[in-house]
């Protein structure tokens, strides 16, 4: 949903910045790599220590590179298969660091094996949700469904909750409960999304196989 409705807005807002980076001679691939590096560093340095506010500030500064790199490639007329591969592959790395950092916190000083398990579930289910689309498309299906909780939703729900939970360090009482709630929402939402995508791929592959069999017997 965010991908559908918020992307146009962010494209408008980020286009001048993307144009500036192009004028400075920076490539889309460099933005993809530096952005991912920043997200990974922010997540793995701050989150395992329970520094949710500053971790989220650092991650937020870098995560928008994922919208800037494609914007730059399009402005340059240089959108490429390699760029699409690099972008999607490094998305998986960034997501692993965010949920891995949260799992490390709960496995250590955060002291909750249940929430550690939920964070790991969010990590794994998010990767599988993305894989369903990539694999379905690789076998020639349209995979005409995005589902309830896409990557943008997973990130926004988690990062908003992390940033707000971090205000606990500054004395805001009770706000840290937002993060566990967000993790449960992402875990359940990702499971529903996985179901939606699997059902769609099952239907599309049955239709494609029926057409192929009909074509062969004719
Ligand atoms: C006092 C308060 C303290 C608060 C501290 C700071 C809080 C900041 C909080 C949040 C900011 C969150 C910003 C997150 C932005 C994420 C943007 C982003 O990177 O989206 C990426 C997404 C996908 O792009 P791609 O096409 O490159 O990716 C494809 C996709 O990932 C597929 O995944 P799948 O869906 O299948 O799982 C893959 O299959 C495919 O491989 C991959 O290529 O881009 C978009 O979706 C575009 C829309 C972005 C919408 C961003 C909305 C940000 C909205 C609100 C931020 C509001 C913050 C308000 C904080 C308020 C707190 C009080
Ligand atoms: N280094 C890159 C990154 C991206 N692309 C192209 O942009 C598409 C993704 O667009 P986003 O707005 O979601 O970033 C991607 O599929 C590529 O076509 C690129 O060429 N090089
Ligand atoms: Mg991108
Ligand atoms: Mg991306």
Automatic annotation (TrEMBL):
Q: What is the E.C. number?
A: 2.7.8.-
Q: Which UniProt keywords apply?
A: Cell membrane, Lipid biosynthesis, Lipid metabolism, Magnesium, Membrane, Metal-binding, Phospholipid biosynthesis, Phospholipid metabolism, Transferase, Transmembrane, Transmembrane helix
Q: Which residues cross the membrane?
A: 20-46, 52-68, 112-131, 177-195
- For the protein in the UniProt heading, the enzyme class is transferase
Cofactor field? Mg(2+)
Whether Ribonucleoprotein counts among this entry's keywords is no
Q: Which reaction does it catalyse?
A: 1,2-di-(9Z-octadecenoyl)-sn-glycero-3-cytidine-5'-diphosphate + 1D-myo-inositol 3-phosphate = 1,2-di-(9Z-octadecenoyl)-sn-glycero-3-phospho-(1D-myo-inositol-3-phosphate) + CMP + H(+); a CDP-1,2-diacyl-sn-glycerol + 1D-myo-inositol 3-phosphate = a 1,2-diacyl-sn-glycero-3-phospho-(1D-myo-inositol-3-phosphate) + CMP + H(+)
Specify which residues bind Mg(2+) 1 according to the UniProt entry for this protein.
Answer: 66, 69, 87
Q: Which domain of life is it from?
A: Bacteria
For membrane topology, the record states: Multi-pass membrane protein
Extract the PROSITE patterns matched here.
CDP_ALCOHOL_P_TRANSF (PS00379)
What does the Swiss-Prot or TrEMBL cofactor note state? Contains a di-nuclear catalytic Mg(2+) center.
Which residues are noted in the entry as a CDP-1,2-diacyl-sn-glycerol-binding?
A: 29-32, 70, 74, 80
HAMAP family xref list: PIP_synthase
Which family is it part of? Belongs to the CDP-alcohol phosphatidyltransferase class-I family.
Oligomer status and interactors: Homodimer.
Designated name of the protein: Phosphatidylinositol phosphate synthase
Natural source organism: Streptomyces siderophoricus
